[in-house]
Structure formats: C-alpha cells, structure tokens
Specification:
The complex is a heterodimer of chains A (about 180) and B (about 190).
Chain A: H1 2-17, H2 26-36, H3 42-54, H4 63-98, H5 105-133, H6 141-160, H7 165-179
Helix pairs in contact in A: 1-4, 2-5, 3-5, 6-7
Chain B: H1 10-23, H2 29-40, H3 46-58, H4 63-106, H5 110-139, H6 142-157, H7 162-176, H8 179-187
Helix pairs in contact in B: 1-2, 1-4, 3-4, 6-7
The chains are: A mainly alpha (about 180), B mainly alpha (about 190).
Chain lengths: ~180, ~190
C-alpha cells in the first residue's frame, strides 16, 4: 500500500509538472523512479521508454509499466490515474477560464517565456535516456558507436524525409539485430 | 463560435478518440488530431483547433490528453471530456501492457536484447529530432538559448528538482517576455 501511495505521489506531481508534454518530465521521472525509489533500473527505464515509442497513442502511456513493475495491475492502474488525471483536471478548469482570457497579452508572455524552458527540459530528457541508450559506459566503444550512429541516422532521416516515425524506430531495431552482435 | 456545436454522443466521442489513439504513432499526434477532428468530422473549425492546441501546449500534461479534455468538454461537457481522454489513453495503454509482457518474457534472449538496444538508440534519435523540430527557434535566439542551456544543466546534469527549477526560472522567463517589455522593443 505504501508503494501505491509512493507511485501516486511521484506520478501526480510529474503530471502537473509536464509543461510542454511528457518529454519534459523524463529526467525527473528517471531520477525519481530509478535513482531515488529504485523501482526500475536505468536500463529498464530506457527500455520502457522505447516500448512506449513502439505503441500507438500518447507516448507516455508507457509509465504504466513502471507501476506494473512495482505492484502489478493495481500499480499500473494507479500510475495511469495519477499521471493522467491531475493534468486533465487542471486543463478542464483552466481551459474554461482561458476562453475568457483570450487576447490577454500575458498569455503571449507565458507562452514565449516557457518555450525555451520546455526545450531545455526536452533536451535534458534526451540526455537522460541517451546516457543509457546511446552512450553507455558499461558497453564497448563499438557498441556505442553503433547506437550513436543509429540515433544520428534517425535524426537525419526524420528531418529530411516524411518517413513514419514508427518505421524509423523499427528500422533501429533491425539495425541493432544485424549490427550489434 | 457562431456555428452551433455539433451533436455528438459520448460513444462517438470515445470512438473517435480511441481511433486516433490506436492509429497515431511516434509522437506526431497533433497531425492525426487535426485530420480527424477538423477535416474528417468537422467537430471544430481550424481556428478553434489552433486555440485548443495553444492551451494544450501551455498547460502541463500531454498535448494529446489536454486536446481530448478541451474538445470533449466543448462537445459534451464533463462527461465528454472523460470519454475523450479515456478513448485517447486506454487503447495505447493496453498495447503498451502487451508489449511490456512480451519484453519481460523475452528480454533475456540475446537477439531480443540487441533489437531492443537498436530500438532504444533509435528512440533517442526520434526524441532529439522532435525537440530540434519544435525548438529551433529557441536555439537560434541568444536569450532563449541561454534559458535552454541553464534549464538543461540544472535538470539534466545537476539533477535539481523540476519544481525548484520551474519556480526559479519560469517567473524570470515570463517577466522578460512581459507585454510592456515587448512593446518597448517594437518601438525601438
């Protein structure tokens, strides 16, 4: 039961901190779940995140796997609720009020002020996952060269073509299968 | 806003968002939402969609679930919001659970381990690309870039908690972009 309470506390706070989407809270989420509570290892966290990329829908639904890892179905349900309900409730209340604030110059100020913060948080998210997935000091340099190259290739392909991102992810899996042995 | 709100049942709302939830891959959910809500079903016009997106991006929470809340609320009130969010989240959650079980079952298989390492490496690339695509404007503007770097270091490297970081940095960032400051700049 205390574990469930811990899960709900962590993910409800993350829900309300997720300005600019789920990626912004990735570093904090990894810190809370792996470093502080030891619910998952760094590698598990990175793999859970990549599973989320393979599933359709909002990519952060993968958080329920952390809940499941901690306390089974109840944990998964608790995390689902804790991560999606607080921000949704806030959105419901604020969006009702927001309609009446239309045209306020402060709305613009909030948006322009928050934009670089969101990008900084997203880059920190890239770094948090990349430390395990792209450049892992426990692995040899060849392995790291290949994982870095796969990441760079995905960036290039998605920037210059309209390839479906899921196909790029699956291609990464295929590249791993042939190159990382 | 002058047009009457279309009459949509809760089941239709749930179904429409569930369909978006299972067919959208790779984080580009906004494009799928626009196609389904504006072009196909005409539940919102272009302007209403952009307004909803603006709110979704400013408030905490995922863009996709915030959009579901706003559109659900607009069409059917509180229950509509619930139906839309559940539609958006549940199918993907079910598929993630299935993937999770497959992962637990097969993760010690060496072939699966290297495939997953490749998938994870590609996922980092996807995340970086999305960040660059959304953020290039901030990365080329010196003052914004300074905020990007500071936030990156505080949260990513020094592990300062997100609450503390936001409480310190956000007011400053919003203040620097305050309406009067901007009016002064335009006048220069």
């Amino acid at each position: 039961m205390t574990k469930i309470v811990g899960l709900v506390n962590v993910f409800a706070l993350l829900s309300l901190l997720a300005v600019g989407g789920g990626t912004a809270v990735l570093p904090q989420m990894k810190h809370d779940t792996a470093d502080i509570h030891h619910w998952v290892t760094d590698t598990q966290f990175a793999e859970i995140y990549s599973l989320g990329q393979l599933a359709p829908g909002p990519n952060m639904t993968c958080v329920i796997l952390i809940g499941y890892e901690v306390s089974g179905w109840v944990g998964a349900a608790a995390v689902l609720f804790a991560f999606f309900f607080p921000s949704s409730l806030l959105c419901y209340v604020v969006s009702s009020a927001w309609d009446s604030a239309r045209g306020s110059p402060w709305r613009d100020a909030v948006q322009r002020g928050m934009a670089p913060i969101v990008i900084g948080l997203m880059l920190a998210g890239v770094y948090a996952v990349g430390k395990t997935s792209s450049f892992n000091l426990e692995r040899g340099w060849e392995f790291n060269a290949i994982t870095l190259a796969i990441g760079a290739a995905v960036v290039a392909v998605l920037t210059w073509t309209k390839l479906n991102p899921t196909l790029a992810i699956l291609a990464g899996g295929a590249a791993g299968f042939f190159l990382l042995r | 806003m002058s047009e009457p709100v279309p009459r949509v049942s809760l089941a239709q709302l749930f179904g429409a968002f569930a369909l978006i939830g299972v067919t959208s891959f790779g984080g580009g959910i906004v494009a799928y939402l626009r196609h389904a809500l504006v072009e196909r079903r005409r539940w919102l016009d272009e302007e209403e969609f952009m307004a909803a997106l603006e709110i979704s991006q400013t408030l905490p929470g995922l863009n996709s679930t915030n959009m579901s809340v706003i559109v659900g609320r607009k069409l059917r009130g509180p229950l509509g919001a619930v139906a839309a969010v559940l539609g958006m989240v549940l199918p993907g959650a079910a598929i993630v659970m299935v993937l999770g079980f497959a992962y637990v079952r097969f993760r010690h298989n060496p072939d699966v381990a290297i495939i997953l390492a490749g998938v994870a490496a590609a996922a980092v690339g996807l995340l970086l690309q999305v960040t660059l695509k959304i953020g290039w404007r901030q990365l080329i503007k010196p003052r914004d870039l300074a905020f990007v770097v500071v936030v990156f270091f505080l949260v990513g490297v020094l592990h300062v908690s997100l609450v503390v970081t936001l409480a310190c940095v956000a007011p400053l960032a919003i203040w620097l972009n305050r309406p009067s400051a901007d009016a002064g700049k335009e006048a220069e």
